[in-house]
Amino acid sequence: MSKYDVAVIGSGPGGYVAAIRCAQLGMKTAIIEKYSTLGGTCLNVGCIPSKALLDSSHHYHDAVKHFEEHGIEIPGEVKVNLEKMMERKSSVVSQTCDGVKFLMDKNKIDVFEGVGSFKDKTHINIEKNDGETETIEAAKTIIATGSKPANLPFIELDKERVITSTEALKLKEIPKHMVVIGGGVIGLELGQVYRRLGAEVTVVEFLDRIIPTMDAALSKELQKVLKKQGVKFHTSTKVKSVERKGDEIIIKADDKKDKEIEIKADYCLVSVGRKPFTDGLNADGAGVKVDDKGRIEVNEHLQTNVDNIYAIGDVVKGAMLAHKAEEEGSFVAEIISGQKPHIDYNLIPGVVYTWPEVASVGKTEEQLKEDGVKYKEGKFPMRALGRSRASGDTDGFVKILADEKTDEVLGVHMIGARTADLIAEAVVAMEYRASAEDIARMSHAHPTYAEAVKEAALAATDNRALHV
Ligand code: FAD
Ligand code: NAI
Asked: Which helix (H) or strand (E) holds 206?
């Protein structure tokens, strides 16, 4: 029987990063993945394919809607070749997954293909696809089994027309009308992909605003911009039934006035969140506790109730984000090797990769109000930037919230071109506990979108923005 210092179950961004870091720290490491490709949800059916389709559909949208204003004329009609677009997405995915396999080999990590299940706290059975079972011994185990799409109890997902993100990433035709249930990250990113490709898109959201966990000003601006792009919204609307009749889907819901509405569509994307995944793991076999939400219970060291078993990523509490899972992967490897690492969960940024992009870190205005913290706000509109006018990306703003007395930056919320990248500056600043004035006094290259961060910081510091 093969013996390891550490076995990692699941090869998503949490699992494969944990395995690399364990190997770097000199531990003999194995990784177990039930699918034939490594990379988990993020690489196979999440972050990477969704971004590939967002980028492709963005090019098409620009060609149809914006080239002309730039003085670019295309003789004839611009057309979408969906099959080719999907093929490109698949090749981006396979290159990225192959990259993880390369990293496993480079770091001398043994890869086992099969379902990992606990025999006891130091032995894991690996049930392979050919029916064979192999058992390995591991002094420590890291559970990184991720998550799966959640559903509403009354919806039958046929995975053909009533679908989750996994199917929406590989449709064979452009929907005529796609109803998106849930105005969160997945619904808006994939909704925008199909809207750009020509589908009518209607978003039905239970709460009174889209992206409800982000700062309310971002929800308002994003909804305004998406509406301009033709996406329809029903907020404060409760879906009651989703029925398929042939190729038609009939969605019934109660709107904000409690009036029943009926929407007909040819596709319905259900994007109401994700749930932790532990099927087949036999957590019980090792005595590992799972909480009432199906998450593996962990302490502040991400250690389960069983002392040699840890858990990270989507399968434990906290934001279901690839970079959160990665941070936890490194963290746990370092804890196991006796180091004292640290993660500041308040400084894990959140990003929505629509265009304009939405990005956020730290406290929202709503949270500061709820916590009774006195704060000041500095806001700067993207349209006032030379760079935004040059590219034509004038929607959005940067908003900085700073402590009223100390000027420490408490939250940064932005929507606009490339804010997914701009948010890194805010994370660095907040990690070093910068004041708004610290950011305001740093030189930002001109002309860039990043100037909006400096201007918002100036606005937060005695209302000193220069270009509004
Ligand atoms: P996962 O990536 O889910 O990996 C878990 C792996 O474990 C899977 O490969 C699974 O097959 C394997 N596994 C499970 N049980 C077993 C077992 N018993 N034995 C062996 N293997 C097992 N996050 C971002 O930060 N940015 C984004 O842009 C982004 N976009 C997304 C888009 C979509 C459409 C979706 C669905 C998600 C997106 N996410 C994004 C979220 C991100 O994918 C997850 O947060 C991330 O993948 C979690 O990583 P993980 O390692 O915890 O688990
Ligand atoms: P989400 O939690 O982002 O959004 C779900 C939305 O559905 C919420 O707005 C919620 O209020 C709404 N909702 C819940 N029940 C509903 C109901 N009965 N009727 C109507 N609306 C309802 O979840 P989503 O979009 O499914 O994504 C799952 C996870 O994947 C998220 O936690 C996210 O972190 C991650 N992800 C991250 C991305 C990124 O970082 N860019 C991209 C895609 C996914």
From this structure: none
Q: 3-state secondary structure string, 150-196?
A: CCCCCCCCCCCCEECHHHHCCCCCCCCEEEEECCCHHHHHHHHHHHH
- How far, in Å, CA of 361 to CA of 412, rounded? 5
The response to whether 132 counts as a known ligand-binding position is: no
pLDDT tens for 275-293 read 999 999 999 999 999 999 9
| C-alpha of residue 12 to centroid of ligand 1, in Å | 5
Alpha-carbon torsion, ordered 300, 306, 308, 309, to 10 deg: -70
Q: How far is the CA of 86 from the centre of ligand 1 (A)?
A: 20
Contacts of 281 (CB under 8 A, 6+ apart): 9, 116, 117, 118, 143, 145
Same domain, 9 and 139: yes
Phi and psi at residue 141, to the nearest 5°: -130, 140
Give whole-number Cα distances, 264 to 202, 242, 404, in Å: 10, 10, 50
pTM for the model stands at 0.98
What's the rounded Cα separation, in Å, for the pair 79 and 33? 39
Mean pLDDT of 297-317: 98
The Cα-based distances of 195 to 226, 232, 249, 393, 418 in angstroms read 10, 10, 18, 19, 20
Q: How far apart are CA 252 and CA 455, in angstroms?
A: 46
Beta-ladder partners of 120: 123
Q: Look up the ipTM and state it.
A: 0.98
Residue that terminates a domain, selected from 343, 360, 377: 343
Q: Domain holding 351: CATH number? A: 3.30.390.30
Number of folded domains that form the chain: 3
For residue 43, give the nearest of 52, 34, 30 by alpha carbon. 52
Based on the residue annotation, tell me whether 70 is a catalytic residue of this protein: no
